Amino acid sequence: MPKLLTTALHTFVAAVGAIVIGALALAAAGIAQAAPPSQSDLLEVRIQRVTMISDFEDNIKTTFGRGARIRTEVELRDLRDPDAIASNAPDYRAEYILSSSVNSLRLGTVYQGRNDPASLKSAVLTPGEEGIFEIYWNVPYDFGGGEYNLRVEVSKADSPHAVEHHLQRDFRVSERSEYVHISKNRYDFGNIDDEETPRSDIIFIAPINGQAGDLIWRVTEWPSEWLNLVDPLPDPDDPTQSVEVVNNGSIVLQVEETTLFGNFQNEDVVVSTNAGDYTIKVSGNIDRHPGGKISDFGMRPPRRFDAGDIVKFRYRIDNSGRTNLLYRVTFIVTSPTNTVIYDSSVAAEDALIEVDDGENSGIQEFEWQIPHDSIDGIYRVGIQLRNAYDFGSAVYSSIDYTDHDAVTFSVLEGPLLEVSPTEVQFGTILDHSADQARATFSVTNVGRLTLEWRVTSVPDWAELVSPLGPVTGDGEITLRIKEDAATGSFLSTMTIESNGGNASVTLGVNIPRHTAAATRTPVPTETPAPTNTPLPTETPVPEPTDTPVPTETPAPTSTPAPTATNTLPPTGTPQPTATLEPTDTPAPTATPTPQPTNTPQPTATPEPTNTPEPPTTAQAQPDNTPAPPPPTAIQPNVSDTPPGGACSGSPQPVSPLTGMANIALLLLPVALAGGARLRRRQMQ
After folding, report:
1. pLDDT tens track for 417-466
2. Where in the chain is the domain with CATH 2.70.50.60?
3. What's the DSSP call for residue 594?
4. Residues with Cβ within 8 Å of residue 259, at least 6 apart in sequence
5. Confidence of residue 618 (pLDDT cuts 50, 70, 90)
6. What's the burial of 122, exposed, middle or buried (CB within 10 Å: 0-12/13-18/19+)?
7. CATH topology of domain 293-412
8. How far apart are CA 516 and CA 62, in angstroms?
9. 673-681: long-range contacts at Cβ-Cβ below 8 A with a sequence spacing of 24 or more?
10. What homologous superfamily does CATH list for 180-287?
């Protein structure tokens, strides 16, 4: 038997090997049969040579910029035998179609000439004839730079999709194009020394190859310190660059009028296009000889003021430079302690005065209010003159507050307003208690002269109780929250104005609901909350929602026993006793309830105020039916037969006979197995 199987296995393996070898041989024969013969045996036309030339420069290249026009020269040869075709035969002159495609290893085919009929080239040849034909392709301005492959194909005119022959050439597209016309790549504005010097220049930009798609460009950088971009306009969304321009356009640059000094050389103006970035170098030397002089500075008498008064300083500016100027005038005031208490440049309150070349400003005035908390004594004022657009530049002219020509004046101490507290947070207003909804503020004169004051504004959610008019001297302010104030959280101010200065007090409040007293509902008398045992006594009662159906309730007798009532447990679960105990001693029966009187009807259970009553259930009326057995013999909600199978019932005692039968059934399989084993041994 083993020899037979071994022989069959060897025969099967040999057969499979023969089949595999035969299949491989047939496949090889098929491949060899499918391979085309040499093109010289079957082709009627061949591409002899492909040359890529930049049409604008007429140079052979392998790298082209965006926007270039590539002229491809294709040399064709008709491979038909001249002796085999008569010159007057209809197919003696054969027409062929040349097409091209551009491919990328990363992107695949990016240009397909067959989809562009205008790019197809017709070529007519006779048997054995050779000819050179040209096809064109314009590199788009937005074409990606990188390595590409040009594939040239030739096919018969009557079957243009059947390619007769093809050749390929590799080339590269650069990131920047040389086919963008920029009229200037450098410009020098020269020396600029007065207002009459020409200060602008125009640079033209245009695409050289209009067939290479749109040239999209914008100015993305220029020296804005001294040059303005007039055209194209700055982009409203990003003023650091211009708006976008398509194809032809111009750049207009203008020297900034406010630039007075500076020698700027070879600074960059950058034009960013979809064909690359281009830089234009600009230069300029600016010296407009600016100048100015403070020719008058003082103030009208009297020169004695009270704190809080407004003083006026008088001044005049002469333009001594060669150009029209906008001046910045700064005023500095010091107190009797030689401390600077006001600087108009720090307060962003400098005066701006424009004066033409060789002219003066005339008399000007600058107003300043003396602070109400100023001390009495002598105050001194200085003045500075400089270029309005360059605060850091040198000062043209100045009078220091320590100089002899500085303006001086005296201040008498006046009234000074003080309000306390300066902030009150009412918190969350739940009702209108007098302590919470009302606030009082003290107004005090900490100056010397008589204080006159009044409250000028309070929040919408507050009401001014007092004072309702002007007040002289010290006083109090009483404020309260309106009863009809809107709901919300508020942070507002109350303002007080006086001849001793103004003051503001911060007020905050949170009003979560309407607090008007007229609309509030009186609070009801507190009643006991409903519980699971809503009895007026300590004896719990069953919950009304779990009352068992009347059919399962044993009927009470006319004289119910005090230890076993007819009321079922409230939970409805098959428990022998209730879960709530009226006393510390566990009861073997259900929860006791109040005992009935001599009347067979059970006494009604009193309910607490506002406690929802349980659903009405049918109650069994007492009759002459004998009392049921004690609860220990029959459990509520438990039947003699367990529902859903015997496993759900209580364990039952097993008789000895039944136990022995069960043991016999368990041992029967073992006996049968032993008998079978013994029989097999006997057979052996």
Report:
1. 999 999 999 888 876 554 568 899 999 988 777 889 999 999 999 999 99
2. 40-173, 293-412
3. P
4. 225, 226, 286, 389
5. very low
6. exposed
7. Coagulation Factor XIII; Chain A, domain 1 (2.70.50)
8. 89
9. none
10. Immunoglobulins (2.60.40.10)
Phi, psi angles (nearest 5°) of residue 353: -130, 125
Give the span between the Cα atoms of 198 and 191, in whole angstroms: 10
- CATH for 40-173 is 2.70.50.60
Place of tokens 């929802």: 612
As a whole number of angstroms, the distance between CA 26 and CA 3 comes to 35
H or E segment to which residue 493 belongs: strand 488-498
User: What was the pLDDT predicted at 387?
Assistant: 83
Dihedral sign for Cα 258, 262, 266, 268, please. Answer: negative
CATH of domain 417-516: 2.60.40.10
| Torsion angle of C-alpha atoms 480, 483, 484, 489, degrees rounded to 10 | 60
* Averaged pLDDT, 564-584: 42
Instruction: Give the pTM.
Output: 0.45
Residues carrying CATH 2.60.40.10, the chain = 180-287, 417-516
Is the pLDDT at 607 greater than 70? The verdict is no
Check pLDDT > 80 for residue 37.
no
AA identity, residue 672: L
Query: 198-209, pLDDT tens digit by residue?
Result: 578 899 999 998
679 Cβ contact partners less than 8 Å away, ≥ 6 residues apart? none
Rounded to whole angstroms, the Cα distance separating 539 from 593 reads: 7
